[in-house]
Amino acid sequence: MGISRRSALKVMAAAAATMVGTTLSAHETQAAAVVARPDAVGMLYDATRCIGCKACMVACNEANDVTPDTSASGGLWDMPVDLNEHAKNIIKLYRDPGTGAQSFVKRQCMHCLDPACVGACMLGALQKGEKGIVSYNPDLCVGCRYCEMGCPFNVPKFEWSKAMPKLVKCELCRQRIAKGQEPACCEVCPVGAVIYGKRTDLLADAHQRLARNPGSYVPKVYGEHEAGGTQVLYLAHVDFEKLDLPAYGDESVPRRVRRLQETIYKGFVAPVALYGLFAAVMLRNREKPDSAKTKEGQP
Amino acid sequence: MNAESRPQPLGGAVFTRPVLVLAVFAGIAGLLIVWRFIVGLGASTALNDGYPWGLWIAFDVVTGTALSCGGYSVALLVYILNRGKYHPLIRPALVTSAFGYTIAGLSVVVDIGRPWIAYKLPFFWHWNLNSVLLEVSLCIMTYTVVLWLELSPAFLEWARTSTYSLFRRVGDTGLPVANKSLLWLIALGMLLPTMHQSSLGSLLLLSGPRLHPLWNTTLLPLLFLISCIAMGFGAVVMEGGLSSKFLGRKFETDMLAGLGFAMLPLIGVYLGLRLIDLGIRGQLGALFAFDHYSVMSVIELALFVAAGVLLATDRRRHNAGNLFRAAMLLVLAGALYRFDVFLVAFQPGPNWSYFPSVTEILITSGLVAGELAGYIVLIKLFPIMAGEPQAAAA
Predict the structure, then answer these.
(1) Which residue of A has its CA nearest to B76?
(2) Predicted TM-score (pTM) of this structure
């Protein structure tokens, strides 16, 4: 081999130095937190206003060509028990076993500012699309379901019943928004419990409602900061956790992963250095094969 | 390498009864795979929207590739730590690795819902570089090819002795090329597992908020990496034990005891990191909560400790039965750790549950059976095992 032992050692030293360097510099290059884009749109759902009529569920099915889920109603009417391949949007009822206090809650995609599903998706089938809507492109989806493993809100659903399945999730009726319409659920709601708008306007509206009627709300806009912030916001009079909206911290889910991955793989320097190191050590060892045998006491 | 340890085909009848029985199981799996593609995943598996990943990912891919780290672990020992005496272990270890990774790849194709899109994975302009799964998929695909290429000298050596002149010519021209590029391939064959075996641990970091605190740590990739190297050694020892029992090979006590010694620091560092991490995150108490999370963790840790205890002294390591049991415990420990992270620690909510369906289990076991049959056939036909003129029994 045309490489001397000394130059092999030099390569090794250089590789080791690079690796240490990358690791140390990692602290400065921490993945930045994602903030809402200025044109971000979303929904504000006010649980104190919802009457549980489920008109939004019917409208959602119609607008998105979703076949009704009649499995729990003996084939008679749409009656999903949770979000699933036949339900992109659902109204659930929570009743407190102790006090009897109750609240409806509407569930659909939260359209996170920094979504775990988008971070998970290998080929970008799920992306932050126009106006920050988390949108799905089946042409790039291999059906791995890593998005389902990642989503902290259990939102993406899979067409388990089909041989050629797709992913199913609320896309904020982006086909309607493109035509200047509202999401179907917001348009149809008879009491304005769910409204559509720019995220900044919705946030201001929500805080105004809290300020005006402090007694009738839990003093928080859910989604303002939770899991890094979401474009769908919630107001409620019952603890959010009871409505299955967990008390997540301010950091988005994928940010922690990005920080780690960027530490290890920044510029792909570390893998290349490690490859060089392996090759250099092997070249060196080839020159003095198995010297270890003699000095190796154990085993 | 001296002449007596030069790899040789085992020879003997190829389609023996055990091979045929294994082939039947593999055949059943093949039929069930066809059925799965006709009826879809919902009808053929117990997977659901709460547990979108089940047996195929947790066992075939995550545990299976870790068990297939023999080639990687022994390569580190031979080429990086320069312990040439373990060289005869490399080829057989590479064969199990190559089969294990091929099976994992096959399982992924069965598991994903839209495999006809998968051909787009190498299209770099679509890549989401933030996706840990993308890194894992590309690494595993590349490594599977690398593994078979690392084995190419075995096939080319065989071709040189073929009765067909075409094969002989391929062997004669190919072998020098293969031998020359081997070093660069082997280096790649050590880099890729370092990357994807650790990243298999990083995968579940994305489920962080829904991962039980006993397992939810940024150290997941490091713990996965250390344990997979240990499992690789464990698998090679087990392979040695099984081929001595069923193929009439000699149990290479001295060499395999050496692997047992190599496992010790790995077990020590793994356990140390695990406990320190639990301590720093204030979760040591959760180990003694006696819910099923704490029970699973304690069993997992106890298996690592037990393997370490069985390997603790030179005498214990040179006792073949003892060494084999230690390797088995270690492999179980690593497997349970992976199952715990992917299926136990992952908490989608109280309304969801998962236990693999009969189809899932039969497909997994059929694939493993196919792997075993392939291994037996390969070592009989091709120069894999270190020379030892002995007739095969199985």
Answers:
(1) A278
(2) 0.91
